[in-house]
UniProtKB/TrEMBL annotation:
Keywords in alphabetical order: Oxidoreductase
EC number: 1.1.1.385
SUPFAM superfamilies according to UniProt: NAD(P)-binding Rossmann-fold domains (SSF51735)
Natural source organism: Atribacter laminatus
Gene: bacC_1
Molecular function via GO: oxidoreductase activity
Top EC class, one word: oxidoreductase
Protein name: Dihydroanticapsin 7-dehydrogenase
Family: Belongs to the short-chain dehydrogenases/reductases (SDR) family.
Amino acid sequence: MDIRFDGKIIVVSGGSTGIGEATVKNFLESGGTVIFTGIEKPDCLDFTKYQNYQGKYDYKQLEVTNEEEVKSFALYINEKYHGCDVLFNNAGIIDAHILHETPTQEWLRTMDVNVNGVYYMSKYFLPQMIKKGGGVIINTSSISGLQGDYTFCSYNTAKGAVANLTRNMALDYAQYNIRVNAVAPGSVRTSMYSKFFDSVGGQEILDLGHSLQYPLKRVTLPEEVANAVVFLASEQASFITGINLVIDGGLTAHTGAQHNWELVKIIRDYNKKEAKQK
């Protein structure tokens, strides 16, 4: 299956790392012109990886929670590139607390980036797609938006909002020939994943746990999510809209009961080992 995006203008938020970075690469390899954003200043990023795509990519520092910044960015895309054909709302953050221990600012920030960011970007790029006669929007949700996790109060809420917003947008904008879908990964091996899990218990123990929980014995790679995004954006998915595509190595296919007991044993053994070393 040869997927091509020649002549298409693709916007990717959160495109400087992880899933976004892998997706930018895939779109470029498929002939698209890609404008991607991140919170990093341009001089903090390495663009040599895109040296074979001169004139086909652009980067803008953008805070997706700032409505005026998003509005100006959308205007820039409209004026320079004559509108957007594909929008990948990928920018997001993660937080883990139970509700009464969730700091208010953490709750608000998680909602702001993960939900309001999708709202602002979609709000200002949808008119361009309507004017062009169609387009595709893909949001990054999560299996954490379809099911609950222990201690992930704000993240579950935010990603659940994205999952249902995706359905709503698919209904409202089908009349304009705009398809809207979401990808719903399990854990993805990104820098955000590594930093977060290092902060809450250590990479080693989490990797052991994930090898038990995931039937495919590992977490998702960014490239695997990127492949799904590119498919959903393509004409090969022309009759697919309103879905949350689960990409989780079979994690949500089982109840987890047996694996949870095995994970508890591993954690206990790990903690005993750590206690002896201290």
